From TrEMBL:
Any one cellular-component term (Gene Ontology): cytoplasm
Official protein name in the record: RIPR1 regulator
Biased composition (Polar residues): 1-17
Originating organism: Syrrhaptes paradoxus
Family the entry assigns: Belongs to the RIPOR family.
InterPro entries: FAM65_N, HR1_rpt_sf, RIPOR3
Length: 326
C-alpha cells in the first residue's frame, strides 16, 4: 500500500514503565547517500516538538511558582519544600531541553553548509565535464572537484547520522485492534512492526465481551530520519493457514509531540480494521532516560497531584503540632 500517515488525537494519559525489547542492534551505520529534503522535514517536525515541550514545561513551572507565592504565608514547610523541589527539577529539565535544541540547531547548520559546498562542487564537476578535458589543468580541476564532492557527501552522511542519534525515543503502547463487526471472539492476530533495524512482534486474541489479550504491550523505538514504520497484521486461522490482513507503511515525523498521542492506523484498504497505538515521545535517548523520565513524569502528573489540595494550602500547624515537623 501507499504511505499511510498517522491520524493523531491528543491524549493526556501518561504511559507506564516501558520494557526494552530490541531484537537486534538499533544503531545504524551512516548512510551512503544523504537525504537533504527528508532531513529538512524531520528537522522542522523536531523543532516544532521541542518548542511544544518547552512551552508545556514552562507553563507547569509558572503554575508551580504561582502556587509557591500563594502558599508562603500559610503553609507547612514540607509542602513548600516539595513544591520548591519540583520547580528546580523542571528548571533543570528546561535547561537541558534548551541545550539539546541548540545542539540540534548547530548540527543542522553544519549540515546545510556541507550541502551548499556539495552543490557547488557538483556544479563545478558538471562545468569541467562539459568543457574540453584535454588540458592538464582541466583534468586536475575536475579531479579536485570530484574529490570535494565526495568529501562533502561523506560529511553530510556523518552529520545526518549524528542528528538521527539526537531524536530521542518513541514509547509505543499497544491499545488494541478496532474492527467493528470485523473482530469476533476467538480470532487470533499477529502484529509485526519493523522500523529500520528495530523489530516488534506481538500476538493477541479476541475474547468474549470484545476484550483483547496481547503477549506484549509496550516497546521503545529510536526515531529514524529516512525510514518509515512498517506494520503487518496477520490473522492466525490455523497452523498452515494464515491470512495477511494488511501491510502498511506509516509516517513518523508527526510523532514529535509534547503530549502522548493516540494514533489510529488503517490496516486494510476499506479501513474496517484499525490498529490503535499510544505514542509518547521522549526528546532524550535511553542514556539520559532515568533523569529525563522522572522529570517528565513528575511534570505531567503535577496537575493531578495538586488537585487534592483544592488550590488552597493546609493550615499552619499549632505549636503543639510543630513538634512533629522538627
Amino acid at each position: 500500500r501507499n504511505l499511510s500517515p498517522f491520524t493523531p488525537t491528543v491524549s493526556r494519559k501518561t504511559g507506564s514503565r516501558v520494557s526494552r525489547m530490541f531484537s537486534m542492534s538499533h544503531k545504524s551505520p551512516p548512510p551512503k547517500v544523504p537525504q537533504p529534503n527528508r532531513l529538512d522535514d524531520v528537522y522542522e517536525a523536531l523543532k516544532k516538538g521541542l518548542t511544544a515541550y518547552l512551552e508545556v514545561h514552562q507553563l507547569e513551572l509558572e503554575k508551580l511558582s504561582t502556587q509557591i507565592r500563594e502558599s508562603k504565608r500559610n503553609s507547612r514547610l514540607g509542602f513548600l519544600y516539595d513544591l520548591d523541589k519540583q520547580v528546580k527539577s523542571i528548571e533543570r529539565f528546561l535547561r537541558r531541553l534548551e541545550f539539546h535544541a541548540s545542539k540540534i540547531d548547530e548540527l543542522y547548520e553544519a549540515y546545510c553548509i556541507q550541502r551548499r559546498l556539495r552543490d557547488g562542487a557538483h556544479n563545478m564537476v558538471k562545468a569541467y565535464s562539459a568543457g574540453s578535458p584535454g588540458s592538464r589543468e582541466a583534468r586536475e580541476s575536475l579531479a579536485e572537484a570530484n574529490k570535494g564532492y565526495k568529501e562533502y557527501t561523506e560529511n553530510m552522511c556523518l552529520l545526518e547520522n549524528e542528528l538521527e542519534s539526537q531524536l530521542g525515543e518513541f514509547h509505543v503502547r499497544m491499545k488494541g485492534l478496532a474492527g467493528f463487526a470485523r473482530l469476533c471472539a476467538g480470532d487470533q492476530y499477529e502484529i509485526f512492526m519493523k522500523y529500520g533495524r528495530q523489530r516488534w512482534k506481538l500476538r493477541g486474541r479476541i475474547e468474549v465481551n470484545s476484550k483483547q489479550v496481547w503477549d506484549s504491550e509496550e516497546m521503545v523505538f529510536l526515531p529514524l530520519v529516512t525510514e518509515f514504520l512498517s506494520i503487518k497484521v496477520t490473522e492466525l486461522k490455523s497452523l498452515a493457514n494464515h491470512v495477511v490482513v494488511g501491510n502498511v507503511s506509516c509516517e513518523t515525523k508527526d510523532l514529535f509531540a509534547a503530549l502522548p498521542q493516540v494514533v489510529a492506523v488503517d490496516i486494510n484498504d476499506l479501513g474496517t480494521l484499525k490498529l490503535s497505538l499510544e505514542v509518547t515521545w521522549n526528546p532524550f535517548d535511553k542514556d539520559d532516560q532515568p533523569s529525563a523520565a522522572s522529570t517528565v513524569n513528575k511534570a505531567s502528573t503535577v496537575n493531578k497531584r495538586f488537585s487534592t489540595y483544592n488550590q488552597s494550602p493546609p493550615d499552619t500547624p499549632s505549636l503543639r503540632e510543630q513538634a512533629f515537623y522538627v
